[in-house]
Amino acid sequence: MSEKQRKAEYHRQYRERNREQIKKQRRGYYELHHTEILTKGRKRYNQTKEELLNNRSRLNLARKLQAKHKVLTDYERGFLEGIIDGEGCLYTGLNSNGKTRLFNLLISMTNKEILEKTRTIIGEGIVRGPRSADRRGHRLPEWTYIASANTLRWLLPQLRLIVKEDKKEKILTALNLVMLTPRLSQKTPEYYKQLEVILT
User: Shortest CA distance to 80 belongs to which of 121, 138, 19?
Assistant: First the structure.
């Protein structure tokens, strides 16, 4: 092999080595860049998914409430105002875990027909009972009408109570806070503290 051929072979091998090195550098760059894009995309996807779930839960709740919404007549409004002020209880107790608030309308009495009429007017809730009389017979069998927080959201704004008006306003304010904080991860100690302040 002549000197000229050796130089040509040397330059050829040199170019091959450089070409392979450049390919590796480019491959590494593209892999790194691709990984960064996937990571950013995944974070953006998770964030968007979280926002969509938040919005979806609020939207579903709003649609559900809208579908159940009922405009009371003057007669129905007067009937419910009287029975809730006189015999009802706007319950805001804690769940068994000691944190979750329960919002219910409870009406207990020995006349089941009135409770059934109440349930018919509202269109929601259940009538439970009867609770049996005690051993001495001092208590007549008693039934209880129970309505959930979703019912209270549309029912209470239509009523003008006298005895329980302050409690009604507190419950509506608390329910608005609960609706704006639908996910468990958003319910921080500040949230529970704010809820306690509203209901006290």
Answer: 121
